[in-house]
Write a structure and sequence with these properties.
Helix content: 40-55%
CATH architecture of the largest domain: Orthogonal Bundle
Largest sheet: 5 strands, mixed
Low-confidence stretches: 1-24
Shape: globular
Strand content: 5-15%
Strand order of the largest sheet: 3-4-5-9-6
CATH topology of the largest domain: Neurolysin, domain 3
Number of strands: 9
Number of helices: 27
Structural class: mainly alpha
Radius of gyration: 25 Å
């Protein structure tokens, strides 16, 4: 998933960068970092530095805004739009560090700061976006934009800022602005609480403890070894502990013969935030959906979905709904056939039960073995993390000529992170790439890409990006290195695609450089997943961790043939979550939801979701839409962008060379570097030369 800042970072979308005057020498945030590549000096940053830097950063930016407003000269692009775009450097610096650390290394002190700073940042952001003096200056430039001899890039950033102000309430009455500010503050605190609850529910509040080795029947040795190490780390010698983190949960569901324990751990997973305790998210989710509907009514929209999608490629919720339901029918048909085939296995083995949701992974593995003679445990030994990483670097080198060199003189936020310098083929520096692979109790679930500094060209000089990929992959054990599932391999390639987007971004203005519609965002990431499954690429990274043997062609062929396997399930659980998201955000200010679980149940019944499949994310742990605004009414974007990525990769396939460097150069230029220069589809068609086709996606998923 993309991972811009999911938490309170979404509250400071208007915050941008310029230099600020040091006010406290001992605080690392108050001066330009004196480090290689000006990276954050994590060894010097202490928790006590955050609040003073946040407070000074808000003060500095407010002064910069006041200077724009009080300027007696006629509003121009330079004294208004550019000055605004460059405001807030200190706030940028501290936010980029704090909110990333909050996601990866959270603790009580960090949570306390987040609870304090979140409403302050919300108020600060609202005070800027509803500053009528500033808006009038921006509007003056906007109204004259076509007569001011501006470049296309200058016109575009002017239009984007004007639209931002309107969408954030600049034209509302004073009373409505006050109401909007109160709603924004309440929503920001609910988002923070939702995120904190999910972190506790996932990493702390459930453990499956096994003390009888017979209950581990069916599990591969590596899975058992990892569970034993988790138990040891929790002070439980001679036991095995399984958690709700995906590298622990999924293998247990796939291989454990003990059906009762499969049910127990899966219930622990899908009941997160729904246990009636202090970490319950039902009321938070319900309240957030209602508050969002009230907020957008003030802004002139019937629903939050209409508000959010209005600036996306899809334009309307109706277009999204039609698109999703067009895929739902064939996907559900395939999923029902998969269920039928798995139930036949249950019956043939004498199982006297109807397959349930906690059985799906287990019998899907049996079905994969029966249909394709492929057991995932057979291929995992070939997917050593370091080799997969080097393989994805190799793909980027083949496509773009860039190189990746490990460097050890860069301070990291956690000792588990590693850093690579990224260079052009001619040796020019592009940026740095941080990689953080494994779960820890302080890290939120999932995988995401973020940045400690974005790429921007300022006064003709390119400021290089500091890009970070954060994952929660299978850990190494005492006897084995980190061995990935193929799903984890795909996830690493996916986040790397986001990373390339961030590394290649080029532009003069923070508001537009690399910024694309939400339903375009997953194109750069998802296209990279296509290369992960290509035989030529697998032969580069898939080597047995013990022998170094390259993965046999026989296994590659089995993987290729099983490419459509379980796609009904995967597509249905994803579409169900996307449609659930749209249901929550189709509420109007006049609607009233009384019970979160009933609302979700009714929404799933309406689309005909079978009980053996749950939405990929249920409401109480649907962090994409409730831990921030970013994916609210936008979870559909993954499959919308899948049409683009499948069509784009099809261009490489049709060329006869999946490493076609001419195509790669066009993709880099139009879809990665200059993607913020125009609307998403315009940029895509500059690369492709035609509208995208749905057919490659249907072919890839076996849904046609």
């Amino acid at each position: 998933m993309k991972h811009f800042f999911y938490t309170a970072m979404a509250l400071v979308m208007l915050i941008t960068s310029c230099q600020t005057k040091p006010t406290e020498p001992m605080n690392p945030f108050f001066s330009v970092y004196d480090t290689p590549f000006q990276t954050p000096p994590f060894d010097l940053i202490e928790v006590s530095h955050y609040m003073p830097a946040f407070e000074q950063g808000m003060t500095d930016q407010q002064k910069e805004i006041e200077a724009i407003v009080k300027n007696q000269e006629e509003p121009t692009f330079e004294n208004t739009i550019l000055a605004y775009d460059r405001s807030g450097a200190l706030l940028d610096r501290v936010s980029a560090v704090f909110f990333n650390v909050q996601s990866t290394d959270n603790n009580d002190e960090i949570q306390a700061i987040a609870q304090t700073i979140t409403p302050l940042l919300t108020k600060h952001s609202d005070n800027i976006s509803m500053n009528m003096g500033l808006f009038n200056k921006v509007k003056a430039v906007y109204d004259q934009r076509n007569a001011l001899d501006l470049t296309p890039a200058q016109i575009r950033v002017t239009e984007k800022y004007y639209d931002d102000f309107v969408r954030n309430g600049a034209e509302l009455s004073a009373d409505d602005q006050l109401a909007l500010k109160k709603l924004n503050e309440e929503l920001s605190m609910l988002q923070l609480k939702f995120s904190e609850n999910q972190l506790n529910e996932t990493n702390k509040n459930f453990k499956l403890i096994v003390d009888n080795e017979s209950d581990l029947a069916g599990l591969p040795e590596g899975v058992k070894a990892a569970a034993a190490e988790t138990a040891k780390a929790n002070g439980m010698e001679d036991k095995w502990v399984f958690t709700l983190q995906k590298p622990s949960l999924i293998p247990f569901l796939q291989y454990a013969d003990n059906r009762d324990l499969r049910e127990k751990i899966y219930r622990g997973y899908f009941m997160r935030g729904n246990n009636g305790d202090e970490f319950d998210n039902k009321e938070i989710a319900r309240k957030m959906a209602m508050l969002r509907s009230q907020k957008v009514k003030l802004l002139g929209f019937d629903t939050h979905a209409a508000y959010a999608i209005d600036v996306n490629m899809a334009k309307t919720p109706q277009n999204v709904d039609e698109f999703l339901m067009g895929l739902w029918t064939p996907a559900l048909k395939v999923a029902k056939q998969e269920l039928k085939e798995m139930q036949a296995i249950v019956d043939s083995e004498g199982g006297n039960f109807e397959l349930a949701s906690w059985d799906w992974w287990y019998y899907a593995e049996k079905l994969r073995k029966a249909k394709y003679d492929l057991d995932e445990a057979e291929i995992i030994p070939y997917f050593q993390l370091e080799n997969v990483r080097d393989g994805m670097f190799w793909v980027a080198t083949q496509l773009y000529g860039i190189t990746f060199t490990p460097i050890n003189n860069i301070q990291v936020y956690n000792p588990a992170a590693e850093v690579f310098e990224v260079k052009e083929a001619n040796g020019d520096h592009i940026g740095l790439l941080y990689l953080d692979y494994h779960p820890r109790d302080s890290k939120r679930p999932g995988a995401w890409q973020t940045s400690f500094r974005g790429a921007i060209t300022k006064d003709g000089k390119k400021i290089s990006p500091l890009v970070s990929l954060v994952c929660n992959f299978t850990k190494p054990t005492a006897d084995t290195p980190a061995l990935l599932t193929f799903d984890e391999v795909s996830t690493l390639f996916h986040e790397f695609g986001h990373g390339l987007h961030a590394l290649f971004t080029d532009g003069e203005f923070k508001r537009t450089a690399g910024v694309v519609p939400q339903d375009y965002v997953e194109l750069p990431s998802q296209i990279m997943e296509n290369w992960a499954a290509e035989p030529a690429v697998m032969r580069q990274y898939a080597r047995h961790y013990k022998t170094g043997e390259v993965i046999p062609d026989e296994l590659i062929e089995k993987i290729q043939k099983s490419g459509h396997f379980n796609q009904g399930f995967a597509t249905v659980e994803y579409l169900a979550a996307s449609l659930l998201d749209l249901n929550w955000h189709a509420l109007t200010a006049d609607d009233n939801v009384e019970n979160t679980v009933d609302f979700e149940t009714n929404a799933m019944k309406e689309i005909g979701l079978i009980e053996e499949i749950l939405p990929r994310y249920r409401s109480t742990y649907f962090s994409h839409i409730f831990s921030s605004d970013y994916y609210a009414a936008g979870y559909y974007v993954y499959i919308w962008a899948a049409v683009l990525d499948s069509d784009a990769f099809d261009a490489f396939k049709q060329s006869g060379d999946i490493f076609n460097q001419d195509l790669a150069a066009k993709f880099r230029q139009h879809c990665l570097s200059e993607c913020g220069d125009d609307e998403g589809m315009v940029q895509y068609k500059k690369f492709r030369g035609q509208d995208p086709s749905l057919q490659p996606l249907l072919n890839k998923r076996g849904l046609n």
